Amino acid sequence: MNNKNELLKEIDSRRIPRHIAIIMDGNGRWAKKHGYSRLRGHQEGVKAVRKIVEIAGQIGVDYLTLYAFSTENWRRPKDEVIGVINLIRRTLLKEIDNLDKNNVVVQFIGSKDKMDKKFLKDTKIACAKTKNNTGLHLSLAVNYGGRLEIIESIRKLVLDIQQKKEIDVKNIDEQMFSKYLYTKDMPEVDLVIRTSGEQRLSNFLIWQSAYSEFWFTNTFWPDFGAEEFLQAVIEYQHRTRKFGGIK
Ligand code: IPE
Ligand code: IPE
Ligand code: MG
What is the pLDDT of residue 167? Predict the structure, then answer.
């Protein structure tokens, strides 16, 4: 009954979340359930990414940020780490022309520290092709950690204070500081979705999600599709956001 077209009719096009961030979790458990390698789980996860990018663009989401590899994920076995990072790079190279044709702007957020030269070079060239597009802004969070983001931002800010004497420490406020984050050009996160039954942020967008709505599902990421994505948006549209005030 809850098929995609019926759910699409339920969406209020005037209240689309501007920025949706997704913690794509459960690839490993999906693989285990099916008797496959963990890497196969990550490969299946790519198919879900394709579907979600498409539906997000279709309903008019402006910003979609996907958590693909965290600063903590380096703790995994080396072959999985290399496998995931290569999968991200290869998938991007394969998909970039199609994304470009669909007017998507692609960028990466995360630390460049520890990322290999080939990854940085290939992804930079691919993303540059899409920089003048005007559709969905797709941000891939790779080697991303919210705490490291804040630390790297503080480093940049302190350097600016030391170099450009006109910055007055008294003028550092939330708005000014947020211009030093990886997400400097993006709006606040309206909705955070996490799959696989876990209900935690795992160091994702900790500054940017201060007032986000959260939506969780037990579905493993490779099984996540347009229907559940639309359900999350519909539920979001029924929530009252108060930002500390009274409604
Ligand atoms: C999320 O799936 C993808 C990455 C963190 C790279 P997991 O690999 O964390 O899957 P589970 O949590 O082990 O099932
Ligand atoms: C968060 O998932 C990171 C990504 C989805 C890329 P994890 O599976 O790494 O998070 P924890 O370890 O369960 O908190
Ligand atoms: Mg996980």
Answer: 87
The CATH code that applies to domain 15-145+188-236 is 3.40.1180.10
| Nearest ligand for residue 69 CA | 2
- Domain boundaries along the sequence of the chain: 15-145+188-236
pLDDT of residue 103: 98
pLDDT (tens digit per residue) in 198-231: 999 999 999 999 999 999 999 999 999 999 999 9
- pTM of the entire predicted model: 0.97
Q: Which residues are catalytic?
A: 25, 73
Q: CB neighbours of 48 closer than 8 A, spacing ≥ 6?
A: 24, 221, 222, 223, 224, 225
- The finding on whether 17 has its CB within 6 A of some atom of ligand 1 is no
